[in-house]
Amino acid sequence: MKSLKEIYHHKNFSLRKVRYLEPVFNNRPAILSDETFRERKDKLLQAMKDNGVDLVFVYADREHGANFEYLTGFIPRFEEAMLAIASTGEAILFLGNENVKMAPHSRMKAQLVHVPYFSLPNQPMENDRSLRDIISDAIDFCGKTIGIIGWKVFTSRFEDNRQLFDVPYFIVDILQRLAKEHGGEAMNASALFMGENGGIRTTNNANEIEHYEYGSSLASDCVLDVLNQVEIGKTEMELASSLSAFGQPHNVTAICATGDRFTNAVIYPRNKAVQLGDKFSATTGFKGGLASRSGYVVNNTEELPADVQDYLERAAIPYYAAVVAWLEQIKIGMKGGELYEIIEEVLPKEDYHWHLNPGHLTADEEWLSSPVYPQSSTELKSGMLLQIDIIPSVQGYAGASAETGIALADEQLREEIRENSPELWERILKRRDYIEKELHIRLHPEVLPLSDTVGYCRPYLLNKESALLFHRE
Known about the structure:
Layout: H1 4-7, E1 13-17, H2 34-50, E2 55-60, H3 66-72, E3 81-86, E4 91-95, E5 111-114, H4 131-138, E6 145-149, H5 169-181, E7 185-188, H6 191-194, H7 206-229, H8 236-240, E8 255-258, E9 279-286, E10 289-296, H9 311-329, H10 336-346, H11 349-352, E11 360-361, E12 385-387, E13 401-403, E14 405-408, H12 411-420, H13 422-437, E15 447-449, E16 466-470
Parallel strand pairs: 2-6, 4-5, 6-7
Antiparallel strand pairs: 1-16, 2-3, 3-4, 8-9, 9-10, 10-13, 11-12, 12-14, 14-15
Helix pairs in contact: 7-12, 9-10, 12-13
């Protein structure tokens, strides 16, 4: 029996004429149903019960609002906000001046408490009560275990992770003191939402998968559009116009960079023109997924800079072999540590210097958390959304990237998608057919591609007709 290294040996890959899957515009983003929001609340209440938590406070601001939005359906945009939920199911929304109007629209029914302290600087502070009094008057803290939820699960072995908080001090301090004064305790409970072992947001139902597929496929379409527009003389800013679409909110800072990146500490697209032989990268992301591609602005190997003429063999093909291995090997029931070891075998870290997790969960955020790390015993489950996120770093060479996302869905979940979202199901079947017949990549039945560019890797960006291809023996 062949080893993974033999199956995905670099000699089995080459640059060939390969068509890309022509995107079909999806103008129907899926709205999350009332049933989904009821299910989310029920999942939280059960998780609280299982973990002995009596009361949770979910913090939100513009950048860190996904856990809050998971239950309410909205984020506080430019203010701060907090949602308190008791084990009884009772909920309170603490909102600043400009988000009070959102309370009637919340997908979770909750009492409104106005908190001017959550408003922008120098806005009216029309109350004579402290933040402590506002919170304590609204909440019974007596003997309760309090969970404070920000946006990060800490896993450092050097700290008491339950006492590390990523929520502003002025809020944490009050909640800790109120809990202690009433015979309870306060702890970081973000793992209830995001922890890879049972976090309620780490798996999704059919409605949620359809909702997130819209953003994942839109990101893919945008990046493919940029790749198809790359020409000598076009500027980063011109090309980057295609990385936004339909006013949808980004979950990452868009990247459109030619040549050397980060000069003068600039991380945004510049008025810099594309030149022959440039390194080039493009990335964008929306709710549900990110798409990223990188390579060289050339038609063929002869146009590469002299010192990187072996780019395909040294960087691009080894990377793509790992992507193919990831796609072919991932399945429900495998441990995150197994997937990590597969990538380590096919693309040894010592040689290719990747340092982040080779795969992670995604949702409203680009990176929710990750079950893929050394010795991870976390089981990959039906309903998980995962990004292929392998980032090699070979000194002197441009990067290689074909980052996109997939969903894992068991037979029951696949049937629910087929019945309730037939258009989505047709897109999934079309993508799987393309991946198998055109790219020669065999997916397990539970692997659902969430965009049209899953598995597609074009390293020479001026050559729009060729891509890397796996030659299965």
